[in-house]
TrEMBL record:
<dbReference type="GO" id="GO:0016651">
    <property type="term" value="F:oxidoreductase activity, acting on NAD(P)H"/>
</dbReference>
<dbReference type="InterPro" id="IPR023753">
    <property type="entry name" value="FAD/NAD-binding_dom"/>
</dbReference>
<dbReference type="Pfam" id="PF07992">
    <property type="entry name" value="Pyr_redox_2"/>
</dbReference>
<dbReference type="InterPro" id="IPR050446">
    <property type="entry name" value="FAD-oxidoreductase/Apoptosis"/>
</dbReference>
<dbReference type="InterPro" id="IPR036188">
    <property type="entry name" value="FAD/NAD-bd_sf"/>
</dbReference>
<protein>
    <submittedName>
        <fullName>Ferredoxin reductase</fullName>
    </submittedName>
</protein>
<dbReference type="Pfam" id="PF14759">
    <property type="entry name" value="Reductase_C"/>
</dbReference>
<feature type="domain" description="Reductase C-terminal">
    <location>
        <begin position="343"/>
        <end position="422"/>
    </location>
</feature>
<dbReference type="InterPro" id="IPR028202">
    <property type="entry name" value="Reductase_C"/>
</dbReference>
<keyword id="KW-0274">FAD</keyword>
<dbReference type="InterPro" id="IPR016156">
    <property type="entry name" value="FAD/NAD-linked_Rdtase_dimer_sf"/>
</dbReference>
<dbReference type="GO" id="GO:0005737">
    <property type="term" value="C:cytoplasm"/>
</dbReference>
<keyword id="KW-0285">Flavoprotein</keyword>
<feature type="domain" description="FAD/NAD(P)-binding">
    <location>
        <begin position="14"/>
        <end position="319"/>
    </location>
</feature>
<feature type="region of interest" description="Disordered">
    <location>
        <begin position="416"/>
        <end position="438"/>
    </location>
</feature>
<keyword id="KW-0560">Oxidoreductase</keyword>
């Protein structure tokens, strides 16, 4: 049956993709490009065709890119039925049906789950519905926040020092807006890069005028009689007057509709094998059901102790194409998904890029460049193995580090770089223990 599908002869075959995302679109293109001639349906809970999310917290927020220009390019005529602005509500694996919020039920022969993540909201009982409290996850979020920043608020408070929060802080300073960044850990990017590298980020932010406050959180937002944000109450007991608050507390995986499906699913994502096949509750591949992108968790070859999710742009593209190939193949032609994670971020005029899995490192070492100039490369090690690398304005070196990581090179690496520090010392990476294996 797989070879028939690959050659396009199964025109009665029905594939449903739930998630009109980057992964969903690239999978649809790969299916058509590789010969699928059957019925293809793509479901998305937003009213928009797939668009690019990374620019929302950078170019869109800064006003350099209209939000309408974030739509993803189409490289293949997917010839699909698009159902947008409608969410999937449940999955019946035995009957091979997806139920939708509009009352429709979609039968399928094969299913691809690419529902991704959404921003973690601020609790309503602590001011989450006040006018002036924003998230940055979708087009509407970015457009509304951009309009508010154009009005030059007196002070913006950002709750959360991850990449989205740091990028938003950078945009605020670029626009000449006073900004306070609140982070529960000891440094910004504590969970992504660890406190050792996070200390460098903290110094950069303070030099660029950010009021950075660490080891605390926002207890509540408070408003006036008209429901407009006026104050933020912090856990150290202080109260700040703020006009705008940006909540950047990470993401929630869109898996609620799958909780009663009999698949291996929880709030951390959808578990699949190395072929992108979703596992059932007994850990067996569920026939004809695949997953890709931010919502997927799988055995990553760089870290075989657990299944992990990789919520990066490149992974969404690569995993979607891998899943599409396997959906059209016989089992003996399945491709194992091997991916070296890579992400990038632009903030305060510095381009930060990473490869591998830095957040699983025990140790970190500066191997090239100058920390003082914010132009350097650092590598991460775990149990004597090189597992990740990050660059600040030195991204051209990362392909070489990626090859070392993929080959399982030892840590610390033996380099002969002309710009390596005279005294290369390994330090504790400084990650939060509770999230090391999330």
């Amino acid at each position: 049956m797989g070879s028939d599908r690959a050659q396009g002869r199964r025109k009665d075959e029905r594939i449903v993709i739930v998630g009109a995302s980057l992964a969903g679109l690239r999978a649809a293109e790969a299916l058509r490009r590789n010969g699928f001639a059957g019925q293809l349906t793509i479901v998305g809970d937003e009213p928009y065709a797939p668009y690019d999310r990374p620019p929302l917290s950078k170019q869109v927020l800064a006003g350099r890119l209209p939000v309408e220009h974030t739509s993803l390019a189409l490289f293949e005529d997917v010839r699909a039925r698009w159902i947008l602005g409608v969410a999937a509500t449940s999955l019946d694996v035995k009957q091979r049906r997806v139920a939708l919020s509009n009352g429709e039920t979609l039968p399928f022969d094969q299913l691809l789950i690419t529902t991704g993540t959404r921003a973690r909201p601020w609790p309503e009982e602590h001011g989450g519905k006040l006018d002036g409290v924003f998230l940055i996850r979708d087009r509407d979020d970015a457009q509304k926040l951009r309009a508010r920043l154009e009005r030059k608020p007196g002070r913006v408070l950002i709750a959360g020092g991850g990449f989205i929060g740091c990028e938003a802080a950078g945009v605020c300073r670029e626009l000449g807006i006073d900004v306070t960044l609140i982070e529960r850990g000891p440094t910004p990017l504590y969970g992504a890069l660890g406190s050792s590298i996070g200390e460098i980020v903290a110094r950069l932010q303070r030099q660029r005028g950010v009021d950075l406050r660490t080891n605390m959180t926002v207890a509540a937002f408070e408003g006036d009689e008209e429901g407009r944000l006026r104050r933020a109450r912090l856990t150290d007991g202080s109260v700040m007057d703020v006009d705008v608050a940006i909540v950047a507390l990470g993401a929630l995986h869109n898996t609620e509709w799958l909780m009663d499906s009999g698949l291996t699913v929880d709030e951390r994502g959808v578990v699949c094998d190395v072929y992108c096949r979703v596992l059932d509750a007994q850990g067996r591949p569920s026939p004809g059901i695949f997953t890709a992108g931010d919502v997927a968790r799988w055995p990553q070859h760089l870290y075989e102790e657990d299944v992990i999710a990789v919520e990066h742009w490149g992974n969404a593209v690569d995993q979607a194409e891998n899943a599409a190939h396997n959906m059209l193949s016989e089992m003996d032609d399945y491709r194992v998904y091997r991916h070296i994670p890579m992400f990038w971020s632009s903030q305060f005029g510095v381009n930060i890029k990473s490869v591998g899995l830095p957040n699983l490192g025990d140790e970190v070492m500066i191997t090239q460049g100058s920390v003082e100039r914010y132009r350097f490369v650092a590598v991460y090690g775990r149990k004597g193995r090189l597992i990740g690398a990050v660059s600040f304005d030195q991204g051209r070196w990362l392909d070489a580090y990626s090859a070392l990581i993929d080959a399982g090179a030892s840590y610390p690496p033996q380099l002969a770089a002309a710009d390596q520090p005279e005294d290369m010392q390994s330090r504790q990476a400084g990650f939060p223990v509770a999230t090391r294996h999330a």
